[in-house]
Design goal:
The complex is a heterodimer of chains A (about 230) and B (about 400). With about 230 residues, chain A is an alpha/beta fold. Helix content of chain A is about 25%, strand content about 20%. With about 400 residues, chain B is α+β, with helices and mostly antiparallel strands. The chains are: A alpha/beta (about 230), B alpha+beta (about 400).
Chain lengths: ~230, ~400
């Protein structure tokens, strides 16, 4: 049928049909879009990007808009409930090449650095989730953190519950929260060195002894060497 | 030498006139100079249910500052998830809140299912809901008894352990594990319910409902219980929310918010008739009362679910090797202790790239430095008890 008469009308129809099925991203949830608009109005160019992640709004803000974003969420969007503050290291984990004696079973992640919803710049990000107990919506707010000088303003003045979350994030990722009343260790003993949730911090248990779960390399006690492969 | 002197006339027992005068002074409220004292409660204190340590600065019997020291049981689950495949992660997260392990699995499995775009069949959804509610009952029921123990009533504690056993037997009957079922699979459940289970479940729910009445008769209205819990440890609603206090602790402060009804729809809750209980007072008593009503509500919910239990498969069609497409997803659920959520970041591999575990007790306990300021030492015990935390849920 397309060979016979290449008129313009059906081809335009075809094109629109293709676009409709494949290229137009799913409509964002109206609530999500409206919440994003509130951030756009309130923060101006402090808002870097936003995305709809399975019905939840994810916004990424500039570092100087990190605390204003919390104030905006609490005051204007009725987000009175702090769910968590956490960090993420987007860098791929170090893998021992050839798996010699190292980890043999852990899932292989892509080796290039990619970023999640609403993007990122550089390796570290802090993200937090706040919710409204009256309006029943929630927002995840992300901020990029410089790798050389990892620090962001603290949220403790807005959400007092951020205290422990920021202490945890500080010891796990080495990100400093300016204005936090007392950044000290929360989970780890005082003299602990390193930041365990960074991707370049090895899981020592797996380094010392290969994971026996995938292939049982140890011979069974008392048996022949049948278990070895 | 034998003597028949009464002790008060023995040497060393003379009445010290100066001390008497001092006592008289104390009686007319002359402030005595007492230095601050640092008291370590825990890590092995019975009221801490494990290894929570509270460093308390005291002025006499009054707390002027409290600093919870956590991490004695930190197991690093967020790091460990990065070294496991998705099906392996459920084994780990079973151990976060070990009293309601099944409820822990649900949000994680949901996050993976949402990212993969698969949905569990109806029957699996219903059975998951039933088992979640059963683990809620098992968890909270223990609290209902233990709270009596905190104020010196032994009997309710035994009732709590006795009747919880019926529920644990049900969970064991369906899943094979009393505490750590590991029964959820991405796309459904490991197995269907065993034969005769539904009838057993009905009978157990009747026992639970009777048991709740017993608790109410014995503790609510009891003079000692009310004196020790009413007006003690009041959490103001806005402050509680800003600290991230959730679940029954927040509803006891008057915030009408329950993720089963108000959150993103999950499991079979949208199809159920749910009553959310709140209390205006925000004190230890309110937290007890709300949990008591919620346990009844859960039992009624289970009975509703058993009536409507659909037939069909319990497992969706899922690829043999589970790879979760790139993306990130936040799933939160109303767990027995409060809001539990997982922020799962996937990069298309067989295991997660990063999992942020939001556990309820962590935030619930983080309000303690504020809440304990100015209370008396014996009330510390009841406040800790009424917040109801599980150590694994704090330390992760």
């Amino acid at each position: 049928m397309p060979d016979e008469t290449p008129t313009t009308e059906p081809s335009a129809d075809d094109a629109s049909a293709v676009v409709a099925t494949a290229e137009v991203p799913p409509e964002p949830d109206p609530v999500v879009a409206q919440l994003a608009a509130r951030f756009e109005v309130g923060l101006g160019d402090g808002l870097r990007d936003w995305a709809d992640a399975f019905g939840h709004l994810v916004v990424r803000v500039r570092r100087d808009a990190w605390r204003p974003a919390a104030e905006l969420a609490k005051r204007d969007l009725a987000c009175d409930f702090l769910s968590f503050v956490a960090g993420i290291d987007w860098r791929p984990a170090d893998k021992s090449e050839g798996d010699e004696g190292g980890d043999t079973s852990s899932p292989v992640q892509p080796t290039e650095m990619t970023f999640g919803a609403a993007g990122a710049e550089g390796r570290f990000q802090v993200f937090a989730h706040v919710e409204s107990t009256s309006r029943h919506w929630g927002v995840t707010i992300k901020v990029d953190v410089e790798e050389a000088n990892p620090r962001v303003p603290s949220w403790v003045g807005v959400y007092p519950g951020a205290d422990w979350h920021e202490r945890e994030c500080w010891e796990m990722f080495g990100i400093t929260f300016d204005g936090h009343p007392s950044l000290r260790h929360l989970y780890l003993p005082g003299g602990f060195e390193g930041h365990p949730l960074r991707k370049d911090f090895p899981l020592l248990a797996r380094e010392v002894k290969p994971w026996p779960g995938l292939v049982d390399v140890e011979p069974m006690p008392g048996g022949d060497e049948e278990g070895g492969e | 030498m034998t003597t028949t002197q009464p002790p008060s006339q023995m040497p060393g027992f003379e009445v010290d006139r100066a001390a008497l005068a001092h006592l008289a002074d104390a009686q007319v409220n002359v402030e005595l100079d007492t230095g601050d004292m640092i008291l370590n409660m825990g890590p092995q204190h019975p009221a801490t249910h494990g290894t929570l340590r509270l460093v308390v600065r005291l002025d006499g019997e009054r707390v002027i500052a409290a600093d919870p020291v956590i991490g004695y049981m930190h197991r690093g689950y967020e790091k460990l998830t990065e070294f496991r495949t998705y099906p392996q992660v459920t084994t780990l997260i079973n151990r976060i809140d070990w009293l309601s392990s099944f409820a822990n699995e649900v949000p994680f499995v949901h996050a993976a299912e949402r990212l993969m775009g698969i949905e569990a069949p109806d029957r699996a959804r219903y059975v998951r809901t039933i088992l979640t509610e059963l683990s809620r009952i098992a968890t909270i029921y223990l609290f209902l008894g233990e709270m009596g123990l905190q104020v010196g009533a032994l009997t309710p504690a035994f009732w709590g352990f006795r009747d919880r056993e019926h529920v644990l037997n049900l969970i064991e009957g369906a899943t094979g594990g009393r505490f750590h079922p590991n029964f959820n699979r991405i796309g459904g459940l490991k197995d269907d319910l065993p034969w005769g289970w539904v009838a057993d479940c009905r009978a157990a729910m009747d026992r639970i409902l009777t048991g709740c009445d017993d608790f109410e008769k014995v503790l609510v209205g009891n003079e000692i219980f009310e004196a020790r819990t009413r007006g003690v440890g009041i959490i103001p609603a806005e402050l509680g929310a800003a600290y991230g206090v959730s679940g029954a602790n927040l509803r006891a402060s008057g915030i009408d918010w329950d993720l089963r009804r108000d959150g993103q729809p999950y499991l079979a809750y949208p199809e159920l008739d749910i009553k959310v209980w709140t209390h205006a007072d925000g004190d230890s008593f309110a937290r007890y009362w709300v949990r008591l009503q919620e346990t009844r509500e859960s039992a009624r919910m289970v009975l509703q679910l058993l009536e409507r239990l659909p037939s069909g498969p319990v497992m969706a069609k899922v690829p043999r090797i589970i790879k979760v497409p790139e993306g990130e997803c936040w799933v939160e659920t109303e767990n027995p202790l409060g809001q539990m959520g997982y922020y799962v970041v996937s990069k298309g591999a067989t295991g997660p790239f990063r999992v942020k575990i939001r556990s309820a007790s962590f935030s619930n306990v983080s309000i303690l430095p504020w809440l304990l300021r100015g209370v008396y030492v014996p009330d510390v015990v009841t406040i800790l008890g009424s917040l109801y935390f599980i150590l694994g849920d704090i330390d992760r």
